[in-house]
Amino acid sequence: MPRARTRTAVLSAGLVMTATLGACTGAPQPHAAMPMARPDPRPVAEAMLADTINKINQHGTAHATMSGSLGVVGQLNADGAVRYRGPQADLALDGKTRNTRTEDLAVSIVDEVGYLNTPLARPDATKPWLKISQDGSDFGSKLLSPALDQLHESVDPRATFSGIEQATRIQDSAPDTVDGRPTTRYDLRVLTEEAARTATDEQQRERFQRAAENGERELGYQLWLDESGLPAKFAATTKVAQAGQVSLVSTYRDWGSPVDIHLPPAAEVGIFDDLPPMAQPPR
């Protein structure tokens, strides 16, 4: 900031001198200079996010609790584990959803393919697990993959911030606690136009581009870091196609501890090719 003020002062003095000389010589006056864009005073989050992402990769696993809204799926409360492998994050959750009624829910996401187990979306009596693929042409994938993608990203801050660290600003930070642990809470803002230019992931780039085109100049997130610099909590709200507004909070513990994440048995997995029949309440 001091350098910016110095440059502005020098430029202003130069313009005043030029105008004075022009008045004395009778030379035509130049057009008034356009005001300089004010620099963003908020700190860039690049160093903090790079360190956080590096520590997530180093530890590799964590236990997580998730709560919030999954849009059309309903309110979610679940507990599970995450395994970070390169750019991917495998996930296993068990919990409940509440929409018109409360139902059990289990989710596994392995190699970016999701598996959902809930009485409201069962392919048939012998196949309790519904397979959901990002590029699937079946009805279930088309309807639920956007919400499941957001669930996936909500447990992995890397999916939100990798590649756009320079386009993220720290709006505010303050000491806080998460489950009794001392943390620092960061209110972060992603500049959508800049993020759309710099993001290397195609889906990420398209998401920020849509937000910018819809007039959302910034998107807000909250990230709590513990004293070692690892995430203690992450909160994100996103409007998702076909799913409505997805708003989730992930709370982390036991970084680096062993986790059990596995695929459901193949014989118990099915898909919905077309619109499924209305789920019947359990008897």
From TrEMBL:
Signal peptide coordinates: 1-32
Highest taxon of the lineage: Bacteria
Matches recorded under Gene3D superfamilies: 2.50.20.20
Alphabetized UniProt keyword annotations: Signal
InterPro entries linked: LolA/LolB/LppX (IPR029046)
Name this polypeptide is given: Lipoprotein
Organism listed in the record: Saccharopolyspora dendranthemae
